[in-house]
Amino acid sequence: MLTGMATSVSPRPMAALDRPTTRTAQLDTESQAWLDRLDPGSRERDAAIGDLHALLLKAARYEVNRRGSSDADDLAQQSADDALVAVLGKLGDFRGDSRFTTWAYKFALFEAGVKLRRRAWQGREVQLEPATWALIARVGPTPQQDVETTELLAGLQAAIAQDLSPHQREVLVAVTLDGVPIDVLAERLNTTRGALYKTIHDARHKLRGALAARGLGGHTEAEAS
Fold it and tell me: Which CATH class is domain 5-121?
């Protein structure tokens, strides 16, 4: 909710606000006005934060309603609150490639998307220690290609089991084979999206090397997703 939001949001340290920002073009009048009003030293800062929250709430409501959520208002409020904190924390990163309102709008859409994915997985079990990895082959048009695909998948299964660390295996299988959204998995594992992306990148690199060492090439759903 917006209640108390204007006074509870802490301004960024001046050192962060003052760092040079490379802007691609002269800011339009409206965008510059937003930045001026949101400046920590501005007398209009509290009112500007309220206006910004209203804009973000409108964007979040649009997104959650578009996806047909049953508790749209609550999710929209949460999304707008988190988007507001994110926007205020990244004012120094605004480059002016688009209008400020368009730039800020994307934060609300992102937060709404994250919360909708988490809500969809609420109460669902995320299997992190699979005993087997059933990979679905794309059957080729010829028997020879069927054999090659079978060999490739067998090699990939062996590489997943033998060459990846337990954590790499859990994350890769959950995201690429089980279809767990990255932000849902980050929440369950108490980590960040960035850390999981790094884990997946490292796991794929290991798998490519392991397949090459086995004389296998090409890509499969788990390795190339």
Answer: mainly alpha
